[in-house]
Amino acid sequence: MGISVSVLVFTCISIIGVSGVFLITGLAGMFSLGQASFMAVGAYTSGVLVVRFGVPFPVAAVTGTLAGVLAGLLVGLPTVRLRRDYIALVTFGFGEAIIAILNNLSHITGGAMGLVGIPPMTTLPLVLLSAVFSLFFVWNFKFSKYGRQCIAIRTDELAARSMGIHGDGLKLLVFILSAGLSAYAGVLYGFYTTYVDPGLFNWTRSAEWIIMVFFGGLGSLTGAVVSAILLGTLPEILRFASEWRILLYCAIVLVIINFRPKGLLGERELGIIKKKTTPDTGRAV
Amino acid sequence: MNPSVLTVRNISKRFGGVQAVQNFSLVLPRGGIVSMIGPNGAGKTTVFNLISGVYPLDQGEVYLEDERISGLPQHLITRKGIARTFQNIRLFQGLTVLENVLTALDPFTPYTLVEALFRLSRSRGEEKKAKEKARELLRLVGLDSYQDEQPSNLPYGLQRKLEIARALAIRPKVLLLDEPAAGLNPKEVYDFIDLIYTLHEDHSLSILLIEHRMQVVMEMSDWVYVLNFGKLLAEGKPQDVQKDPEVIKAYIGEEEAC
Prior knowledge:
heterodimer, A: two-stranded antiparallel sheet, 71% helix, globular, B: 10 helices, 10 strands
């Protein structure tokens, strides 16, 4: 397959992961630095099932996603009661722990050598369709009572609780949903590259996704998509600059965040689909 | 039927070395307007926070009608029918005026996550109904023409009204108003008193009020509790409390200096 197809596939996978981060960070205001480890849970669960146990791909894909949901529940239960900064710490610790477990369970996971021989089941139409559906769900979530209550919690948790909003329950729900999305992104990833190793899913990927959400505008799903596409393809576009490209990438991110602290789109959504947009209040988030 | 809608019995709360509220009791009769007054730091807002479950009680009990609500989590206490506003306005920035009211309706809106994710007809129908209801509440406080504004763009007096509309959305039995007239100009204060009377009569709301403006307290309340250093200093009809020498010493004398 050509480079452009693979860039497209990876961008779609990023979009799915980023839509999960949008839920958890953009809407509910929690920072998860362990988001990529849910991706690892999805990729490894489905990969191991197919490679070691010969389970058919669709069953493995669903199981992988559910495993991510379960992991989200386990991490979320003790975490959602914490303050934001502690949530970042705990999820970071959890993420690195998952990596360590994958490295050490080498008889199942292949350890640091990686899991090889995953059949290539992820096709371009599947990835495109998955990205579209993920966005459809997240969009509907944002513009439902759930999304509204999340934004209320993000801006003022005490007032939100005083309005009868079940803060912890809602945060746990968001945590689980976003873990599921990440895990599904992991499934697609593993069955595209046919090879996964633990190093692919460390906190730098989680951080990259958070950067994408901020770059696009914290409250804007379309902004997150635009930035996932831009930042996903940017390293490819900058390929001519060889080793300077990562530096350029960072510089571009810094410039945007510096001059548009609310991200490319702020709270606004692009497009024709939705009613009026909320004005940019210029308030730093 | 229990004649009192809210009963607070011997509640206490200590923060480190400070006894914020000590053995305080209060009765809010059905359909009544009761005020709490007292110097800054007397523990009035703490009493609100204890009733609405922001802090756990050290001691004592709170009953809504005949049901004990102390010890429940904050969001459940609210859903039982206790709504409040805040001394330093706490609206949801990033949501529009209409959405601010909707958030308080949301816990009562009966559609499920799956219906929301697939945007099924029930979720769309319920959203529409909720919006209609929210617009009605905005109309009630006179904010219907601002529904798509950001709350931060509204003048202070209107933000106060929006907080009341949001509180009414939970269909409260009891409304706790924490210094609702603070920062309002004299005309806005009159408007505000009218609004509270209207709500009180049309919705048979029972209201517990913290207020510094004596004009509001004297004009509106059936009964007044005076707090000082977390303890009850006096209670009675507004005109009697106003004459109480202890109260004058602790509170009204101080207030005149401002």
